[in-house]
Design a protein that fits this description.
The protein has 265 residues and is of the alpha+beta class. The chain is built from seven helices and ten strands. It is globular and about 55 Å long.
Length: 265
């Protein structure tokens, strides 16, 4: 067996208990397509004794090239909804999912699930299958893009760089630093609809939708749609490159990008 095949092998770790107490004590290294319990079923636990870790466990080895590809594709897709199959075309969706979860657990990237913001806590309605992600730090993202700092300093509008990816990363990073370890966004749950609002912030028990955009102009259709659907929201917040503007007739407040940390509790 080569190292390249190792990712598809489930590594059996037998329990340190007497064999007669466990119907699964005869398991050995087997390829993924052949993994099964003595009774013939395919499952992550023994269907007879239902023994779970630390008694015994399965561990899926991840190809380092898959891990690297998922990491780079997340960096290129800041602010976009992700799918396991699109994270890396050279490996399966299951392997991409494992690689993504490993990066999240290592806190190298942050997962941002969609949720139904009809009430608090937001995490109670989080959809783990519909999600976005950001990097650990904006400096890490800048290093991945390999653009000299001197070139970035000449830019007057941070939102204009990398299709606004740096601005979305900065806003999410500031919200996470202030609000804790979890961040969510809203995506309209209607087939064929692409409406979504970048982030959801909570301040004094009230939910505020937050949109990151390149200027004060524009329709902000998704934000208006959300404010129409959830009438109990006091206002929507737009982070952009301009100055502070309040539009009470539209229930909107425009803030400079650096004000992101002041939005949530």
């Amino acid at each position: 067996m080569t190292l390249k095949q190792s990712w598809s092998i489930w590594n059996w770790k037998p329990a340190e208990l007497s064999p007669e107490k466990h119907c699964c004590s005869s398991m050995r290294f087997r390829p993924a397509r052949e993994r099964s319990w003595p009774c013939g079923t395919f499952t992550s636990r023994c269907p007879n004794c239902m023994l779970s870790p630390p008694g015994h466990s399965w561990s899926l080895k991840i190809d380092i090239t898959c891990l690297d590809a998922v990491f780079l594709n997340v960096a290129k897709s800041i602010g976009e909804q992700l799918q396991n199959t699109r994270l890396n075309a050279r490996h399966s969706g299951q392997m991409n999912h494992k690689a993504f979860d490993l990066l999240v657990k290592a806190k190298i990237i942050h997962k941002i699930p969609a949720c139904d913001p009809s009430g608090l806590p937001l995490g109670a309605t989080a959809n783990q299958k519909k999600f976005k992600a950001i990097m650990l730090d904006i400096g890490l993202l800048q290093r991945i893009y390999q653009v000299p700092v001197e070139l970035e300093l000449r830019q007057e509008n941070l939102l204009a760089m990398y299709r606004g990816i740096l601005a979305e990363q900065f806003a999410a990073q500031e919200l996470l630093a202030k609000d804790g370890s979890a961040l969510y966004y809203w995506a309209r749950d209607v087939r064929g609809s692409s409406a979504e609002v970048d982030y959801l912030a909570v301040r004094q028990g009230t939910i505020y939708p937050v949109e990151v955009k390149s200027g004060a102009s524009g329709s902000l259709k998704s934000l208006h749609l959300m404010l129409e659907k959830y009438l109990n929201y006091p206002e929507g917040i737009v982070l952009y490159s301009g100055t502070y503007i309040k539009l009470p007739e539209q229930k909107l407040t425009f803030m400079p990008l650096y004000c992101a940390t002041t939005i949530s509790d």
